């Protein structure tokens, strides 16, 4: 039976935009009872556009907020960074040089720009550092907001919008029909996570999740008897991809994520996973 499975899995995966690294994962895909998706780039397009730039400190203009943020975002590959750099190019901003660039895992980026300590961070980072979040930051639930902190003072924020992939709703309908729980884990804020979850009718979501917490979420699900598949795109996701029963690296991703995963999803489209599961079930039923 093995050569048959190999032949089928190779053909099916190629058709469905999946590269199968672990043959057992294909055979076991029919057992999946819970799917833990990442949000950005998988359930959503991951194509952010800047919608608002606001200042909080009167000593800074919106142009200055964007200019200082651009120095850091030019060194980041996060979809938020890509969205900000797109805006910077449109506005023909001259991007300043930076020193000592560092990622703050799951929370943002920091560097020294023109002698100032500049950070572009999540709302979670502000809360942890007792910096209050401006009231108008979350006027639109569909927006992801990042905050610009200079020398430990909040000076402004940039709001960005992403869109849900049109294929996500249909994929989720298929999972539900097959009694598969659909969950989402994202580093993004609670309000945006809830808006996406409600729109897609997910069975649950986890917001402001740090990379190491994904492993715990999967362990908890497994302890409840779930057979868990998870999607992930970054180096940070490697431990969780390894913990999942079926780990799926999405998109161009990083080599580390791809090396840990059982399956590589070429187009980051959840519909491809739906096809895999449907085909896996149909094939298994024919074989027995
Ligand atoms: P996700 O992949 O779900 O977006 P991450 O761990 O990559 O989760 O990021 C979590 C949060 O950290 C983002 O929503 C954002 O608030 C902040 N963040 C991460 N990278 C950047 C960046 N380059 N610029 C600004 N904010 C960032
Ligand atoms: Mg990520």
Q: Would you state the CATH class of the largest domain?
A: Alpha Beta
CATH topology title of the largest domain: Rossmann fold
| Sheet of most strands | 7 strands, mixed
- Give the strand content: 15-25%
Spatial shape: elongated
Q: Any ligands, ions or cofactors bound here, and which?
A: adenosine-5'-diphosphate, magnesium ion
Instruction: Quote the distance from N terminus to C terminus.
Output: 11 Å
Integer tally of domains: 2
Mean pLDDT over all positions: 90
CATH architecture of the largest domain: 3-Layer(aba) Sandwich
Share of helical residues: 40-55%
Order of helices and strands: HEHEHEHHEEEHEEHEHEHEHEHEH
CATH homolog superfamily of the largest domain = HAD superfamily/HAD-like
Folded structure, characterized:
With 288 residues, the chain is of the alpha/beta class. It folds into two domains: 2-45 and 163-287, HAD superfamily/HAD-like (Rossmann fold, 3-Layer(aba) Sandwich); 49-161, 3-Layer(aba) Sandwich (Calcium-transporting ATPase, cytoplasmic domain N). 42% of the residues lie in helices and 25% in strands. It contains twelve helices and 13 strands. The chain has helices at residues 2-15, 23-28, 39-43, 62-73, 79-90, 123-128, 166-177, 190-200, 211-223, 238-243, 255-260, 270-287; strands spanning 18-20, 34-38, 49-55, 99-104, 108-113, 116-121, 143-150, 153-161, 181-185, 204-206, 228-232, 246-250, 263-265. Helix 4 crosses helix 5 (79-90) and helix 7 (166-177) runs parallel beside helix 12 (270-287). The mean pLDDT is 90. The chain binds adenosine-5'-diphosphate (ADP) and magnesium ion. Residues 187, 233-234 line the site of magnesium ion (MG). This is Copper-translocating P-type ATPase.
